[in-house]
Design a protein that fits this description.
The protein starts with 7 loop residues before the first strand and ends with a helix. The longest helix is centred in the middle third of the chain and has 15 residues. It has eleven helices and nine strands. Strands 1-2-3-5-4-6-7-8-9 form a nine-stranded mixed sheet, with helices on both faces. By secondary structure, it is an alpha/beta fold. Strand 8, helix 10 and strand 9 form a beta-alpha-beta unit. The radius of gyration is 18 Å and the shape is globular.
Amino acid sequence: MSSALQFSVSPYTPFMQETKVDLGNGITLHVEIGGQPKHPAILLIMGLGAQLLYWPDFLCKSLIDQGFRVIRFDNRDIGLSSKIPYQAPALNPLKLMGRFALGLENRGAPYTLYDMADDAALLTEILQLDQVHVMGASMGGMIAQILAAKYPDKVDKLGLMFTSNNQPLLPPPFPKQLFSLIEKPVSNDEEGIINHSIKLFQLIGSPGYVSQVEAMQIARKLYQRSYYPAGVLQQFLAILCTGSLLQVDKQITQPTLVVHGSQDRLLPPSHGKAVAKAIAGAKFELIHGMGHDIPPHFIPQLSGLFAHHFK
């Protein structure tokens, strides 16, 4: 572990330590680490517009208790990590989405998922981790696919949750779920933004497993920690300008587990199945009743699946 890094106890999660890591490419990432330094490391990569706290403490603690060291971080443009200024002409997300669905190339985003995978690779170098297990969710799963293919020596095993390889002609997200991700809140004060987040949790989450009280507490905590909608849009443009990862998947040689929820209406299960089919030897696991989230009910099952895979 780099001795230059200054660690302190996370104000949100007492069993995690936090630090800032300057990647040397103009980006600084906010990172939290928990578990024993000698234990095998799992790098957690989160999805679109999602701060590191979207990895539930319960899941992190469960993996730590099973003998892993857990590292979670805010991607660029979100949470407490660097924000990317963007001066280029405004892009039309709807036009880009149409081209993306057909497998046509898009350009003009300030960065792509390849740049975000480079961030993750640099992070492992600075933390002096020779090889890590990588677990990515949603957009984080897309970044994880690129990381495993581009830096095979850095990634030991790969775990993917409710993600996609964005190959052409996959079933699109249900419109209500997709637009809840990118539409603006009704009002821009704290309550308006928190209500917007709760609505999002309920639309994309696991039906019957989203607690209104918990959703409100998490939404408030996330808002007070950081609110940066420009970053969410830029990450969305990064996905649209990265395009299909089908050829990336064909380069992945690490043992891979792909997990998807049967009730995911943002990325239907066929997306996860497409990823598992494209990666040689990958295993696919469908979790009945789970949506595009990680509710407490499913964490024992999820942490058991991934801990077994990584061991």
